[in-house]
Amino acid sequence: MSLLHFQLTPAGENALMLYFDQRIDPQISALVQQACVLIRNELTDDLIDLLPSYASVLILFNPLSTDLHRVSAQLQHSLKHLQSGNSQTGNTIELPVYYSEESGPDLALIAKTKNISITEVIQRHQALSYRVYAIGFAPGFAYLGEVDPLLQMPRLATPRAKVPRGAVAIADRQTAVYPAQSPGGWNLIGLCPTRMFNPDSTPVMPVAVGDEVRFVAIDKAEFLRLGGEIPGDER
Questions:
Q1: Which of 20, 29, 136, 206 is the most exposed place for a label (fewest CB within 10 A)?
Q2: Which residues, listed in sequence order, are joined to residue 182 by a DSSP beta bridge?
Q3: Which UniProt keywords apply (predicted)?
Q4: What share of the chain is helix, strand, coil (3-state, %, to 5)?
């Protein structure tokens, strides 16, 4: 039997929130993924949806076939089988990135702030694997962590009105790829040609919570060949 701590809290007439220790941690993220598997197996057709995040899961169930008390009792029993262990629970996904001052208008700022070269910024960003901790803000916006401590940068004091689709960015301990043009205050370091959200594809997103992402540098010609587009200067 697991001795891991978790909490189930009502979140509406047909919803429960499952909480683990509230911190960004690969082991906690692995527990979130393990819990999702147990919940799907336990609730089967009574389950409407699961929304995992850094250290929690929102559970939506069908109120026409079950109720809050029954689901809570089922999950309290099922989640006792949670076990700590390997933090790697998903797939490893490679995402190509065209790193340059043309495609990453904040590369020079990061290099200057950290007293390193632009080349080192690029090398350090692609040297690590990043866990998908959550997907939110916009469909396909995956919060990836954790960034090399030397590359950690605060959000911009004044967010951009338009960040292009595919922009690869850093904010604090996290990195991400913007799935669509939108406002944003993260530091932009490159462009990724991979569509992070496409409702006409199966699956609609190339990554899921629990996956590991590795960024791979490509040149401008390869970026354009893969369908990438160079936007106007958004600085």
A1: 136
A2: 163
A3: ATP-binding, Hydrolase, Nucleotide-binding
A4: 25, 30, 45
- For 113-133, how does the pLDDT look when each residue is reduced to its tens digit (9 = 90+)? 999 999 999 999 999 999 999
Judge if 123 and 185 occupy the same domain: yes
Q: What is the DSSP string of 55-99?
A: SEEEEEE-TTT--HHHHHHHHHHHGGG-----S--S-EEEEEEEE
Predicted confidence at residue 85, as pLDDT, reads: 60
Structure confidence at residue 235 as a pLDDT band (50, 70, 90): very low
Amino acid at site 192:
C
Same domain membership, residue 97 and residue 75? no
Is residue 2 a part of any domain in this protein?
no
- Where does the chain show beta strands of DSSP type E? 7-10, 15-19, 47-52, 56-61, 92-99, 129-135, 142-145, 160-163, 167-171, 174-177, 182-184, 187-191, 212-217
- Please name the amino acid found at residue 37: V
> Which tokens hold the place of 220?
């401008």
Shared-domain flag, residues 51 and 138: no
Q: What is the CATH classification number for the domain harbouring 199?
A: 2.40.100.10
- Counting DSSP H helices and E strands in the chain, the numbers are 5, 13
Reported as a single tens digit per residue, the pLDDT across 1-49 is: 344 789 999 999 999 999 998 888 888 888 998 999 999 999 999 999 9
Q: Is the peptide bond before 13 cis (omega within 30 degrees of 0)?
A: no
